[in-house]
Amino acid sequence: MRVAAIGENAPLFVLPAIDGGTVALDRYRGSRHVIVWFSRGFTCAFCRNYIDRILDGYDTLRACETELIQVAPNLLEGAREFFAPAPLPYPFVCDPDKRLYAVYGLGSLGALEATRAAVVSFSHAFATGGSGAQIRGAWLDVVNRNFLRRLHHHASSALEQGLFLVDKQGVIRHRIIVGPLDPIPGAAVLADLVMTYCAGDSPPA
Question: Is residue 8 part of a domain?
Protein backbone atom coordinates (compact mmCIF):
# COMPACT_ATOMS: atom_id res chain seq x y z
CA MET A 1 0.00 0.00 0.00
CA ARG A 2 1.47 3.35 -1.06
CA VAL A 3 1.29 6.24 1.40
CA ALA A 4 0.26 9.61 -0.08
CA ALA A 5 3.59 11.25 -0.90
CA ILE A 6 5.14 14.59 0.01
CA GLY A 7 5.08 16.96 -2.96
CA GLU A 8 1.94 15.42 -4.46
CA ASN A 9 -1.56 16.84 -4.48
CA ALA A 10 -3.48 15.58 -1.47
CA PRO A 11 -6.31 13.21 -2.42
CA LEU A 12 -9.56 15.14 -2.22
CA PHE A 13 -12.49 14.02 -0.10
CA VAL A 14 -15.96 15.01 1.04
CA LEU A 15 -17.13 13.35 4.27
CA PRO A 16 -20.06 13.83 6.68
CA ALA A 17 -19.22 15.93 9.73
CA ILE A 18 -20.65 15.75 13.21
CA ASP A 19 -22.02 19.30 12.92
CA GLY A 20 -24.57 18.08 10.38
CA GLY A 21 -22.87 19.17 7.18
CA THR A 22 -20.00 17.84 5.12
CA VAL A 23 -16.34 18.74 4.98
CA ALA A 24 -14.55 19.00 1.65
CA LEU A 25 -10.77 19.33 1.55
CA ASP A 26 -10.82 21.59 -1.49
CA ARG A 27 -12.92 24.24 0.27
CA TYR A 28 -9.71 25.38 2.00
CA ARG A 29 -7.80 25.78 -1.26
CA GLY A 30 -6.19 29.21 -1.43
CA SER A 31 -7.25 30.25 2.08
CA ARG A 32 -5.86 27.86 4.71
CA HIS A 33 -3.30 25.15 5.22
CA VAL A 34 -4.87 21.93 6.48
CA ILE A 35 -3.64 19.20 8.78
CA VAL A 36 -5.59 16.02 8.08
CA TRP A 37 -5.37 13.75 11.13
CA PHE A 38 -6.35 10.14 10.59
CA SER A 39 -7.10 9.05 14.15
CA ARG A 40 -8.43 5.99 15.92
CA GLY A 41 -11.57 7.91 16.86
CA PHE A 42 -13.32 8.89 20.08
CA THR A 43 -13.64 5.33 21.40
CA CYS A 44 -9.86 5.33 21.80
CA ALA A 45 -8.87 6.84 25.16
CA PHE A 46 -5.47 7.76 23.78
CA CYS A 47 -7.02 9.73 20.93
CA ARG A 48 -9.22 11.62 23.39
CA ASN A 49 -6.02 12.70 25.15
CA TYR A 50 -4.59 13.79 21.81
CA ILE A 51 -7.77 15.79 21.14
CA ASP A 52 -7.21 17.64 24.43
CA ARG A 53 -3.65 18.45 23.34
CA ILE A 54 -4.96 19.84 20.07
CA LEU A 55 -7.61 21.91 21.84
CA ASP A 56 -5.05 23.39 24.23
CA GLY A 57 -3.21 25.04 21.32
CA TYR A 58 -5.87 25.24 18.65
CA ASP A 59 -5.73 29.05 18.57
CA THR A 60 -2.04 28.77 17.70
CA LEU A 61 -2.90 26.69 14.66
CA ARG A 62 -5.59 29.15 13.61
CA ALA A 63 -3.09 31.98 13.90
CA CYS A 64 -0.93 30.12 11.36
CA GLU A 65 -3.85 30.14 8.91
CA THR A 66 -4.26 26.41 9.46
CA GLU A 67 -7.27 24.18 10.00
CA LEU A 68 -7.21 20.69 11.44
CA ILE A 69 -9.58 18.00 10.18
CA GLN A 70 -9.87 14.87 12.30
CA VAL A 71 -10.89 11.74 10.41
CA ALA A 72 -12.20 8.87 12.52
CA PRO A 73 -13.49 5.34 11.82
CA ASN A 74 -16.52 5.91 14.05
CA LEU A 75 -20.18 5.83 13.12
CA LEU A 76 -21.60 9.31 12.58
CA GLU A 77 -24.55 8.90 14.98
CA GLY A 78 -22.30 7.85 17.86
CA ALA A 79 -19.83 10.67 17.21
CA ARG A 80 -22.58 13.29 17.18
CA GLU A 81 -23.92 12.01 20.48
CA PHE A 82 -20.48 11.83 22.07
CA PHE A 83 -19.43 15.39 21.20
CA ALA A 84 -22.84 17.02 21.73
CA PRO A 85 -22.04 18.22 25.30
CA ALA A 86 -18.76 19.84 24.20
CA PRO A 87 -18.63 20.49 20.44
CA LEU A 88 -15.20 20.56 18.83
CA PRO A 89 -14.00 23.84 17.29
CA TYR A 90 -12.50 22.02 14.31
CA PRO A 91 -14.08 19.61 11.79
CA PHE A 92 -14.52 15.97 12.85
CA VAL A 93 -15.54 13.66 10.01
CA CYS A 94 -16.44 9.98 9.97
CA ASP A 95 -15.08 7.31 7.65
CA PRO A 96 -16.45 4.08 9.20
CA ASP A 97 -15.47 1.91 6.22
CA LYS A 98 -11.95 3.39 6.37
CA ARG A 99 -11.91 4.00 2.63
CA LEU A 100 -10.16 7.36 2.93
CA TYR A 101 -7.54 5.79 5.20
CA ALA A 102 -6.75 3.40 2.35
CA VAL A 103 -6.66 6.22 -0.21
CA TYR A 104 -3.96 7.94 1.86
CA GLY A 105 -2.09 4.64 2.27
CA LEU A 106 -2.92 3.90 5.89
CA GLY A 107 -3.76 0.28 6.56
CA SER A 108 -4.42 -2.19 9.31
CA LEU A 109 -1.46 -3.55 11.21
CA GLY A 110 -0.35 -7.14 11.68
CA ALA A 111 -2.70 -9.45 13.52
CA LEU A 112 -0.81 -9.44 16.83
CA GLU A 113 -0.29 -5.69 17.04
CA ALA A 114 -3.84 -5.03 15.81
CA THR A 115 -5.32 -7.31 18.46
CA ARG A 116 -3.25 -5.69 21.21
CA ALA A 117 -4.25 -2.19 20.16
CA ALA A 118 -7.92 -3.11 19.80
CA VAL A 119 -8.07 -4.72 23.24
CA VAL A 120 -6.40 -1.73 24.90
CA SER A 121 -8.65 0.76 23.10
CA PHE A 122 -11.86 -1.20 23.75
CA SER A 123 -11.08 -1.63 27.45
CA HIS A 124 -10.70 2.14 27.84
CA ALA A 125 -13.61 3.15 25.62
CA PHE A 126 -16.23 3.46 28.34
CA ALA A 127 -14.12 3.76 31.51
CA THR A 128 -13.22 7.36 30.64
CA GLY A 129 -16.36 8.18 28.67
CA GLY A 130 -17.19 11.31 30.64
CA SER A 131 -20.75 12.59 30.63
CA GLY A 132 -23.86 10.50 30.11
CA ALA A 133 -24.14 11.71 26.51
CA GLN A 134 -20.53 10.75 25.84
CA ILE A 135 -21.06 7.27 27.23
CA ARG A 136 -24.20 6.91 25.10
CA GLY A 137 -22.22 8.03 22.06
CA ALA A 138 -19.55 5.42 22.65
CA TRP A 139 -22.24 2.81 23.24
CA LEU A 140 -24.02 3.72 20.00
CA ASP A 141 -20.78 3.38 18.07
CA VAL A 142 -20.39 -0.17 19.36
CA VAL A 143 -23.91 -1.62 19.57
CA ASN A 144 -25.00 -0.35 16.15
CA ARG A 145 -22.77 -3.05 14.66
CA ASN A 146 -23.80 -6.69 15.00
CA PHE A 147 -21.62 -8.91 17.17
CA LEU A 148 -19.30 -10.21 14.45
CA ARG A 149 -18.99 -6.83 12.79
CA ARG A 150 -18.30 -5.26 16.19
CA LEU A 151 -15.40 -7.62 16.82
CA HIS A 152 -14.12 -7.08 13.30
CA HIS A 153 -14.35 -3.31 13.68
CA HIS A 154 -12.26 -3.14 16.82
CA ALA A 155 -9.63 -5.47 15.43
CA SER A 156 -9.46 -3.91 11.98
CA SER A 157 -9.54 -0.34 13.32
CA ALA A 158 -6.05 -0.84 14.76
CA LEU A 159 -4.79 1.38 11.99
CA GLU A 160 -1.69 3.43 11.65
CA GLN A 161 -2.36 7.05 12.51
CA GLY A 162 -1.35 9.66 9.99
CA LEU A 163 -1.05 13.42 9.93
CA PHE A 164 -0.74 15.07 6.53
CA LEU A 165 0.15 18.76 6.26
CA VAL A 166 -1.53 20.13 3.14
CA ASP A 167 -0.64 23.67 2.01
CA LYS A 168 -3.00 26.26 0.58
CA GLN A 169 -2.36 24.95 -2.93
CA GLY A 170 -3.46 21.45 -1.91
CA VAL A 171 0.04 19.93 -1.91
CA ILE A 172 1.24 17.57 0.84
CA ARG A 173 4.23 19.29 2.45
CA HIS A 174 4.89 16.97 5.39
CA ARG A 175 3.52 13.76 6.90
CA ILE A 176 3.81 11.84 10.15
CA ILE A 177 2.91 8.14 10.30
CA VAL A 178 2.77 6.44 13.71
CA GLY A 179 1.31 3.29 15.24
CA PRO A 180 -2.24 3.21 16.65
CA LEU A 181 -1.16 3.78 20.27
CA ASP A 182 1.77 6.11 19.62
CA PRO A 183 1.40 9.80 20.55
CA ILE A 184 0.84 12.51 18.00
CA PRO A 185 2.27 16.04 18.29
CA GLY A 186 0.34 18.71 20.14
CA ALA A 187 -0.93 21.86 18.47
CA ALA A 188 2.20 23.91 19.26
CA VAL A 189 4.45 21.39 17.50
CA LEU A 190 2.03 21.19 14.57
CA ALA A 191 2.09 24.98 14.29
CA ASP A 192 5.90 24.87 14.14
CA LEU A 193 5.67 22.33 11.32
CA VAL A 194 3.34 24.62 9.40
CA MET A 195 5.81 27.50 9.74
CA THR A 196 8.69 25.24 8.67
CA TYR A 197 7.12 23.57 5.64
CA CYS A 198 4.58 26.12 4.43
CA ALA A 199 6.41 29.44 4.92
CA GLY A 200 7.24 31.20 1.68
CA ASP A 201 7.51 29.45 -1.64
CA SER A 202 10.21 26.94 -0.78
CA PRO A 203 9.79 23.45 -2.29
CA PRO A 204 8.58 20.58 -0.09
CA ALA A 205 11.28 18.95 2.03
Answer: no
